[in-house]
Amino acid sequence: MKAATIVAALAGTASANLIHLPKIAARATSSSSASSASGTSSGSLPTITTKGNAFFAGDSRFYIRGVDYQPGGSSEATDPLADESTCSRDIPYFQKLGLNTIRVYTVDNSANHDKCMGLLADAGIYLALDVNSPKYSLNRAEPEVSYNSDYLQSVFATIDAFANYSNTLLFFSGNEVINSDNSTSAAPYVKATTRDMRQYIAERGYRSIPVGYSAADVSSNQYLMARYMDCGDDAMRSDFYAINNYEWCDPSSFTQSGWDTLVDMYSNYSLPLFMSEYGCITNTRKWTEAAELYKEQMTKAFSGGIAYEYSEEGNGYGIYKINGNSVSPVGNQPEWLGQELNSTSDPTNGGGYSTNGTKQDCPSQSNDWDTSPFTGSALPAQPSGIEKYFKNGAGKGPGLTGDGSQEAGSTQIATASAAAGSATATYSSGDSSSTGDSSSSGSSSSGSASSSSAANRGAVPLTLETGPLVGMAVMVVSFAMGAALL
């Protein structure tokens, strides 16, 4: 991601072969159909499930053909899916590019998204959604402070806002939180957030919407993070892993870019894997890598990718330039990307996907991987008080104008018990209308680690001594999006 973008944020046409799946509907799914083995919503409309190292729509493997979409960039922090005029303006361009997915980094979890999600569904387009926002996100400089019940209430409210749309593809628990050799200490909090999101989805009775992480293009720890998100008990593992990758710079190739090495590296990975950002701007960007993503030499490990990014935000990565209601191409970018996506078919016979991948061993502590005081598979205990959200729902989201959560916690931490993350009771049948009013009372499920007593039973309290932050540049949070700093 571009450091300047983050600091600024903290300071203040349809293709014939696009829709190869049955039409999806953005509407609430019933509890029974949402959790069915086939992974389809009411009316036999496809929702996305995972099997082995791949995504599936029904019985057909699903390949992500996407674009990162956040008009205005991270500094304006607006919700493009809450404004029908914005999404309806851009959907025809998504179709021309040959997309089936958009990724959105910031939404207003207090707003209604029915119209835009319905329009996207009509166009055959799924949503990959980041659950963080500028004020409600993990701060890698003090992750133990920013991981708190206020933060998780906002995260859970975002899940509530989108879980009942059948074209919600997946949720990202974080984006590039680990972005350097010395920021891996935040990894346990990313994984804990992923754990908590998966438990919330299960406790609230939603369909099993995949939850995972989008990793920065940092060679020293990107694969270590992949192993970390796939190690330990099932309740604490991720549903998928995604990488931001800018190594293919035109002119290039499968071997010259190092993508062949990536495929070998992840050949035995047990989770679905895809590129959550790609699109190097060195030289002339002709998007030849977009076609390579859907060849079987890639699809045996990867399930497609998301091009960065739809709109020009002053960083040189935009495909289109937006001026009010006017959308114009940036050079030949839309033509080149659309040509690659629309002329490349999905592989046949499952594209070489595997169900034989193995759960990973947690990385050992090293100069490149330091997650202390949480070593091995140990994770932070869930914040006290979040059990009411599992039982009653998150309630109204704070939106983009709330007080924020990054300073709402403390340096007092504890290690989670063995039961943390296990959902043993379903409190609701996928109804997002219930509230998580702090005045509510009642015991949580006997086996749920959501209650403060269960989450901390047997935990060892720890105190972290944290020094002062050195300038705003270190206050980098997980909501920020953008190309990797090359």
What is this entry, summarized?
By secondary structure, the chain is α/β, with parallel strands linked by helices. 24% of the residues lie in helices and 15% in strands.
What does this structure look like?
The protein is α/β, with parallel strands linked by helices. It has a domain at about 55-345: Glycosidases (TIM Barrel, Alpha-Beta Barrel). It has 15 helices and 17 strands. It has helices spanning about 5-10, 30-35, 75, 85-95, 115-120, 145, 150-160, 185-205, 220-230, 260-265, 290, 295-300, 335-340, 385-390, 450-455, and strands at about 40, 45, 50, 55, 60, 65-70, 100-105, 125-130, 170-175, 210-215, 240-245, 275-280, 305, 320-325, 325-330, 410-415, 460-465. The strands form five sheets. The chain has an eight-stranded parallel barrel with strand order 6-7-8-9-10-11-12-13. A three-stranded antiparallel sheet has the order 3-4-5, with no helix packed on it. Strand 4 (about 55) and strand 5 (about 60) form a beta hairpin. It starts with a helix and ends in a 23-residue tail after the last strand. The relative contact order is 0.18. It comes from Hortaea werneckii EXF-2000. This is 1,3-beta-glucanosyltransferase.
* Beta-strand share of residues: 5-15%
End-to-end Cα distance, whole Å, is 9 Å
DSSP helical segment count: 15
Helix coverage percent of residues? 10-25%
The rough form would be described as globular
Which CATH class of the domain at 55-343 is shown? Alpha Beta
CATH superfamily of the domain at 55-343: Glycosidases
| Poorly predicted sequence stretches spanning 5 or more consecutive residues | 1-25, 27-44, 434-479
CATH topology of the domain at 55-343: TIM Barrel
Number of strands: 17
Family: Belongs to the glycosyl hydrolase 72 family.
Biased composition (Low complexity): 424-455
GO molecular function, one term: 1,3-beta-glucanosyltransferase activity
EC number: 2.4.1.-
